[in-house]
UniProtKB/TrEMBL annotation:
SMART domains noted in UniProt: NDK
Pfam families the record matches: NDK (PF00334)
Name of the protein this chain belongs to: Nucleoside diphosphate kinase
Keywords attached to this entry: ATP-binding, Kinase, Magnesium, Metal-binding, Nucleotide metabolism, Nucleotide-binding, Transferase
Superkingdom, taxonomy of origin: Bacteria
Protein family per UniProt: Belongs to the NDK family.
The species this protein was found in: Calorimonas adulescens
Length: 135
């Protein structure tokens, strides 16, 4: 099914100069960029984005990390784009993130894990509106 999903290249991806490398991974799997922008995300936006994680031990560190510099928000479109982007990203638990995935190849910490991708059709719809209200 043709789907759209939200991917974020988190601030460490930008700082480490991995934007091109990361974008290439989705393009290789034939996802197509529909929209892309650089954002300095504020607390309100990030709290809304990560509302399911409010109260978790890592929540404050996660939001500080996401506010630590500019990030890249991307709308990708393609066949099964939602699941595909998550496979390309790799497991959340860094010890399980396989080589060949973005996290498996470039991240060494479960918090500082370079990328976000929507986890379901409902999340994708919500997150696309949140990050691209102008569309
Ligand atoms: O990003 P993903 O959907 O794979 O994972 P999540 O469970 O929705 O968690 C959101 C983000 O919180 C992760 O990408 C990590 O940056 C962070 N996190 C963390 O720091 N420690 C955990 N135990 C779980 C998640
Ligand atoms: Mg998630």
């Amino acid at each position: 099914m043709l789907e759209k999903t939200l991917v974020i290249i988190k601030p460490d991806g930008v700082k480490r100069g991995l934007v091109g490398e990361i974008i290439k991974r989705y393009e290789q799997k034939q996802l197509v960029i529909k929209s892309i922008k650089i954002v300095n995300a504020d607390y309100t936006l990030l709290r809304e984005h990560y509302y399911e994680h409010i109260g978790k031990s890592y929540f404050n560190e996660l939001l500080n990390y996401m506010m630590s510099g500019p990030l890249i928000a991307i709308i990708w479109e393609g066949e099964n784009a939602i699941k595909l982007a998550r496979y390309i990203n790799g497991d959340t638990n860094i010890e399980k993130a396989m080589p060949g995935t973005i996290r498996g190849d470039f991240a060494s910490n479960t918090t500082y894990n370079l990328v976000h991708a929507s986890d379901s059709a409902e999340s994708a719809e919500r997150e696309l509106k949140l990050w691209f209200p102008e569309l």
